[in-house]
Amino acid sequence: MGERGAKHVCSHCGAKFFTAEGLAAHFAILKQHYDHQSAPQRESESAAATTQPTHQQPDPPKTGARATTMLHLFKWTAVVAVLIATVVLVRVFPHQIAHQIAISVPTQPLQYTELYFPSPQMLPASLNLSRPNLFKFTIVNHEGHDTVYSYVVTMTSSHGAMTIERDHIDVIDGKKATMVVNVAPRRPATRYVVAVILQGRPETIHFTAVSQ
């Protein structure tokens, strides 16, 4: 009997069979063959899925964060301790600390002039119209060289201003000079502002007195 009499054909390979049992047996053989070939592939895929590394980041160790916190706490504690020690030293040894700072910090020589009343408690608060009213002022030269100071003494009231003395004096560097001036008011019961001015310089001083 040839293939022309076959009634059943395999859809996979085209084989022809005369009976349905023969075709079923052929399918069973093919199924076993395919199952045998696909089993290793499935096992490989399963093993790869099992061994594939995950991308989840591990939790950071808590010990590192605790160590960082302790380090910061230690630093702040050290700073506070240094500040407390400094305050205690300044209170216990104020003069020694001030001296140490003075010799540690470089200073530049200053050039300046002093102008002041040497006896402010002796300044006349009341001005007598018939007797002298004397006061003193002092100039100290710290300019680094001998200096000629021109000065003017004025009296100012509600009636105007007037000059009571104008002069100049040569003061040696590092030395001082004291001048005596007489204030002679012209009006009674008048409030005067007596000022000493170094001309061409910023130094000026004054006091207030009332004529009797």
In short:
This protein has 212 residues and is α+β, with helices and mostly antiparallel strands. It is 35% helix and 31% strand.
Explain this structure to me?
The protein has about 210 residues and is α+β, with helices and mostly antiparallel strands. It folds into three domains: about 50 residues; about 40 residues; about 100 residues, Immunoglobulin-like (Sandwich), CATH 2.60.40. It is built from three helices and ten strands. The strands form three sheets. A five-stranded mixed beta sheet has the order 4-10-9-6-7, with no helix packed on it. Helix 2 packs across helix 3. It is rod-shaped and about 165 Å long. The termini are far apart.
